What does this fold into?
Amino acid sequence: MALSLPGGFLPYADEWEKKIGAFIEYRPRGLTPDAGAVSGNKAGDRAAERAAAELPPEAASLVRDLPFAVKDNIAVKGFSLSCGSRLLEKFISPYTATAVQKLEAAGGTVVGKTNLDEFGMGSSTDSSALQRTNNPWDQSRVAGGSSGGSAAAVAAGLVPYALGSDTGGSVRCPASFCGVVGLKPGYGAVSRYGLVAYASSLEGIGILADTAARCRAVFSAVRGGDPMDQTSRDAPPSSPPLYGAGNAENTRNTENAGKKVIGVLSAETIAKAIAAAAAQEAGDAGGKALEAAAQAAELEPETAGAFMAARERLAGLGHTLVDVDIPSLKYGVPAYYTIATAEASANLARFDGIRYGRRPGWAENPDDLIDKAREAGFGAEVKLRILLGTFVLRAGFQDRYYLRAQRIRAGIRANFELYLGTPENAKTGGASAPGGRFCDAILMPVFPTRAFGRGETGLSPFAQKAADLYTCCANLAGLPALAFPVGVEGGLPVGAQLLGRAFSEGTLLDIVEEYEARYPFPRPAGYKAFWEG
Ligand code: GLN
It folds into this structure.
């Protein structure tokens, strides 16, 4: 089905795309290959059609007949699936991801595949081997990562929404850098079928959108259990509904309908915890690394100011704000990088130059062929992570790294559940929670800085990894998190995020949609609204 684009859109899109380079493959005229038989998976087509037919009308109208973009590590039949890597540069996907299939069944059309850090590894999109993506707010700066192309395309108005993936913050970091909404659904809430795996136990498909209402609509279209992904499931009936919550019955403050208890995890609280741990380990390498991490996690004044303002605005909207502390978070980054690289080293073993992607012109024997394909195909960051992953999984060392990281992960989840409750115990009110009641959400920074520059004005690879602290904990805990714009400082957007208990995406969206009604999201200079509604 041909997509009908609004008048004046194509020249507008061409001009932006020349400046920002959001797309690896762009077909703005939006012809879906093999229209009508997109997935090649008939059972999947029927399930997607059923799901689309059940969409509430307010969701359907924000998706139907509209274009969307897809990060180039999510499969769309007939489109590129490069993962930002030389190894897969010419690879065309033979099938379509479930999330994409559901959006197509709901009347959406894929118009292109967006740039990313190679295999989703990074926070800038600059480690894409294929091209550079610039931030629509300031083209000398990065768009964030790893879903930087998706965020930039939405921020510039080239699409109303885009799919990304979030393993440790890759939807929320670029959402914050580009001034758009970024939802990382809870683990298993959206099928991962068709997402090229980086770290399977941490990641999922996420949504970048122009408004909270759009984000809700897209989430309601893509969520749900899928037989093709055994870790996906439907939201339990007790979870907050996405539509028609009416709010009053879904909050414990019945005398104050729709108002929520929001925990605030400030950067100071986290920095203090890391500094205390560094002091304990003073003198050894671990202590030094923690000290450097504490520094890297410190918010720049502009980000800190916008975070404080968001806190006050939420209080001004009638929510109750309370301070919370997640003590095990201080080890979040080391745990995240241990688990993520361990899983990456296993997941990326499939790229051998035989089954996928580029083959070297000549090789002595199969081992030599694999060596040559990987040597030429993988970028430096990917090689580093595969090596790290094989190191932490080495026989005899698993206790010291991998299993310890899993224990930290369990601790972080338990810390969050103490404040947020679980889907099972949420209704009890949380008398045992610190403060005597559960929080509906926890407000946190997304990233210590705004979009950074390149070269001199950039962030070192170590600082970029340490800065994942605020985002990676939602992945370690498997909880949903929603990033939203809370200000523009020095011409660059700043985001904050709300974390919730499993399957509470509806609550997070309620809070942000109400916030947006009062404090509309900013747009970069030159933005034209083609997709309002
Ligand atoms: N910055 C993180 C990393 O490099 C996040 C990646 C992601 O979420 N895909 O691993």
Summary: The domain at 9-258+492-518 is CATH 3.90.1300.10 (Amidase signature (AS) enzymes).
